[in-house]
Fold:
Amino acid sequence: MFEKIIRKKIDNIDNLYFNFLVDTTELNINLNNILDSSIIEINSLRNRISYNINKILIEYDELELLMTTDEFKEIKLDSEDEYVINTVKEEVLEFLKEYKR
Structure:
């Protein structure tokens, strides 16, 4: 049961991160072609990106709490799980730093 919760958190983060990557790519394309993009489209993308960032950070907070338990130490993680746990949050936070400039 505990492992299912952990796997669900990791999957949620992974899916949100994928959506985040798609939206940020689309935003960059639209910003580069601002004449072809409407302000409504750009604002919609920004809202979706903000939503995904907030959800990713919430999922991470919950996951980090679960990772402090003894049950977590018994779970065998694959390389994709490790990537999600170790990399996605850093990349999202790095994006936030760049985006605020």
